[in-house]
Every structure is written in C-alpha cells, then in structure tokens.
Automatic annotation (TrEMBL):
Protein's name in the database: Regulator of cell morphogenesis and NO signaling
Any one GO molecular-function label of the UniProt entry: metal ion binding
Top-level taxon of origin: Bacteria
Hemerythrin-like domain location: 20-153
Subcellular location: Cytoplasm
Any Pfam family matching the protein: Hemerythrin
Keywords: Cytoplasm, Iron, Metal-binding
Organism: Allgaiera indica
Length: 158
C-alpha cells in the first residue's frame, strides 16, 4: 500500500515531510557514515575507495539536522498557521540549503564514481552504495516536494 502524498493540504504536507523524510534521513545518515568509514578504513589505498566520503556524510548529517530543525521549529509552524508576513525569508534560506544539498549529492556521486562498485566489492560496500542510492533518491524527492509543491504556495502570499 502506497501512502498518498497530501500535496493539496500544506499543513498535512509538512507533517508528511517530517515523518517520511526527516525521520528517514535521521536513520539513514549515521549508518551510511559508519559504513563509509569502515569501507574507507578496510579498503584504504584501493583504486575505487571513496576516500573522504565518511567526512562528507558526517558534515551533511550535521547540516541537514540544522536544516530540518529550522523547518520543524520555524518554517513548518508558520505554514501550518497559513503563512503570512515574514515567511519569505525562511523559505529563501531553505531553498539555499537545498542548493547546498544538491552540491553535496554531486560530491557523493563524484567520490563514488556515481555509485559504481568495484569488482568483488564487499557486502558493506554494496550495502553502502545501495543505501546511498536510496538516500539520494529520498533527499531529491524531499527537496522537490518542498521547492515545487510547498514553497510556491507561500512565496506568492507576501
């Protein structure tokens, strides 16, 4: 059974984003960081080892936690109250963060050779790249829902 995305109800959409994407990112990133660190350590010096990936994911986790908290504590409550004066600035800040996240996705793709595994990759490496693929897809859909479905409704109100 697939969950219907409530794009016609901004308040419901904010709750959906929090439960579907914020919670999921908070689960994904620590495990992906742990796996990246393990792969980098065990396969140090091998040609396709994604050196620096664990640090990138750790930084991304911190940046995303700040971003998600700003949404949960400032922007989403404003949206649930119907928007109003002053909403343009937090939306602009979230869009800027989203652009940064797109850059971080590009950096992940570059470090991992677009998630292409070496021959005979270990199970952890396979799991890492599978997880990164899911994380990237989730993050891109999260960003799309906010940038294309949620934010435009409120940017025209001020």
């Amino acid at each position: 059974m697939t969950t219907q995305v409530p794009i016609d109800d901004p308040a419901a959409l904010t709750r959906y984003i929090e439960s579907r994407y914020h919670d999921r990112h908070r689960q994904q990133l620590p495990e992906l960081t742990r796996q990246a660190d393990l792969v980098e350590t065990v396969h140090s010096g091998e040609r396709k080892t994604p050196q620096g990936l664990a640090v990138l994911l750790s930084r991304l986790a911190g940046a995303m936690e700040i971003h998600m908290k700003k949404e949960e504590l400032i922007l989403f409550p404003m949206i649930r109250r119907g928007g109003g004066q002053g909403i343009a600035q937090p939306i602009a800040a979230m869009r800027a963060d989203h652009a940064d996240h797109d850059g971080e996705i590009a950096a992940i793709r570059k470090l991992t050779d677009d998630l292409s595994l070496p021959e005979n990759a270990c199970r952890t490496w396979v799991s890492l790249y599978d997880g990164l693929g899911q994380f990237i897809a989730d993050l891109q859909e999260h960003i799309r829902l906010e940038n294309e479905e949620l934010f435009p409704r409120f940017e025209t109100l001020h």
